[in-house]
């Protein structure tokens, strides 16, 4: 229905029209009819206005008022446990009691973020029950405590912030957690506790085994919690001058992780990557004099002093060949690894590791057992 407002001029014209139609009527009847018409028009307009109000969607939905913000970042992926621990204050095994609603903060709300590049930002807190403290260099945390760990992002005040790589721990799940402690005069300040790394900050624990994110290079997937405890306090390796009888070595290198080249003196096996034709497995016989030569080479290059994944943080190569060295001495097992960037580093340790990798690779591919395997078909680029 169309509502046309009636002003004084319109009312005058309507009155004149009535006078033309009924010139014999008395003036007061004209006035009565005019007032009746105006009253009816006002009722109709009021009804029309109420109908509009009833159907008007003037209040937008939550989706219409939400501001969606996404930040793309390139996280630091730590190449070794040693480097991750250097940026970590506390390591715990904890269970998530609850994930709290996100809050929106400004720089003025938070003393720890005065230098933040954003004037406003969202924080998603999680309440963590501390089950076991594996390492504590700062803060006052003991088993049985509950702490709040804060992460950037989340939904608060009609603002949804998402950040590449950031995931939030799930309630009732247990995790190995690497935490940074930011000291503040206000012990309840947001970001007092945060994960040391976006990628390596927390790793899920299931049935006594730790499962890091796929991008993590700290631990092998499925490592036992007991082995993680041992890694937190590394043993001092006492290396005998002469090779112990239980010395064994596993050496592998690969581009495709599903098709590794390896030699294994633990089991006496070897495998070759045939590229397009999969892999071929065979026996590998390593004489004691060969093992003694490997042992002596490791001593000369101080390989026994190395651990972790020693690679460049800034250089990338394609295709990238990764290598792993695992060995046993007096019942204890150790490992060190690297990739195509290891030899590009300036440190003596990385140069020694690269040299030993080349030594093992040449020994392996020139062995009689490895040469007996079929030739590879194709290559990687």
Largest sheet: 9 strands, antiparallel
What are the secondary-structure elements, in order, as H or E? Answer: HHHEHEEEEEEEEEEEHEEEEHEEEHH
Number of strands: 19
Domain tally: 3
Measure the end-to-end span. 72 Å
User: What best-fitting shape do the alpha-carbon axes yield?
Assistant: elongated
- Give the percentage of residues in beta strands: 25-35%
**Number of helical elements:** 8
- Low-confidence regions: 1-34, 43-60
CATH fold label of the largest domain: OB fold (Dihydrolipoamide Acetyltransferase, E2P)
CATH A-level architecture of the largest domain: Beta Barrel
Spatial extent as radius of gyration: 37 Å
- The whole-number mean of residue pLDDT values reads 80
Based on helices, strands and strand pairing, what is the structural class? alpha+beta
Helical proportion, percent range: 25-40%
- What would CATH call the class of the largest domain? Mainly Beta
How is this structure best described in words?
The chain is an alpha+beta fold and 381 residues long. The protein folds into 3 domains: 8-54; 68-232, OB fold (Dihydrolipoamide Acetyltransferase, E2P), CATH 2.40.50; 248-371, Mago nashi protein (2-Layer Sandwich), CATH 3.30.1560.10. The chain is built from 8 helices and 19 strands. The strands form 3 sheets. Strands 2, 3, 4, 5, 8, 9, 10, 11 and 12 form a 9-stranded antiparallel beta sheet that branches. The longest helix has 29 residues, at 27-55. It is elongated, with a radius of gyration of 37 Å. The chain starts with 7 loop residues before the first helix and ends in a 10-residue tail after the last helix.
């Amino acid at each position: 229905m169309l509502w046309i407002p009636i002003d004084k001029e319109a009312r005058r014209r309507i009155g004149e029209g009535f006078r033309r139609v009924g010139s014999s009527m008395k003036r007061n009847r004209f006035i009565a009819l005019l007032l009746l018409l105006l009253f009816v028009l006002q009722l109709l307009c009021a009804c029309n206005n109420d109908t509009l109000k009833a159907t008007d969607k003037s209040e937008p939905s939550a989706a219409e008022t939400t501001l969606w913000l996404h930040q793309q970042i390139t996280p630091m992926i730590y190449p070794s446990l040693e480097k991750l621990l250097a940026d970590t204050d506390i390591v715990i095994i904890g269970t998530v009691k609850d994930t709290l609603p996100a809050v929106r903060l400004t720089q003025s709300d938070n003393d720890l973020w005065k230098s933040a590049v954003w004037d406003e930002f969202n924080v998603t807190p999680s309440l963590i029950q501390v089950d076991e403290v594996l390492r504590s260099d700062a803060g006052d945390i003991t088993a049985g405590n509950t702490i709040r760990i804060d992460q950037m992002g989340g939904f608060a005040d009609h603002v949804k912030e998402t950040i590449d790589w950031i995931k939030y721990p799930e309630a009732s799940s247990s995790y190995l957690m690497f935490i940074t402690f930011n000291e503040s005069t206000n012990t309840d300040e947001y970001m007092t506790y945060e994960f040391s790394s976006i990628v390596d900050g927390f790793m899920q624990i299931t049935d006594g085994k730790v499962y890091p994110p796929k991008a993590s290079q700290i631990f092998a997937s499925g490592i036992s919690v007991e082995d993680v405890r041992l890694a937190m306090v590394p043993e001092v390796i006492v290396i005998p001058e002469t090779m112990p009888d239980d010395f064994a070595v596993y050496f592998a290198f690969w581009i495709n992780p599903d098709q590794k080249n390896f030699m294994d003196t633990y089991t006496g096996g070897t495998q070759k990557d045939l590229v397009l034709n999969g892999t071929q497995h065979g026996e590998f016989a390593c004489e004691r004099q060969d093992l003694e030569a490997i042992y002596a080479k490791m001593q000369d290059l101080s390989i026994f002093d190395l651990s972790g994944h020693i690679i460049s943080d800034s250089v990338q190569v394609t295709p990238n060949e990764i290598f792993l060295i695992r060995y046993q001495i007096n019942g204890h097992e150790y490992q060190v690894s690297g990739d195509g960037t290891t030899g590009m580093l300036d440190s003596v340790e990385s140069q020694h590791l690269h040299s030993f990798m080349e030594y093992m690779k040449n020994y392996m591919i020139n062995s009689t057992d490895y040469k007996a395997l079929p030739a590879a078909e194709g290559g990687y680029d």
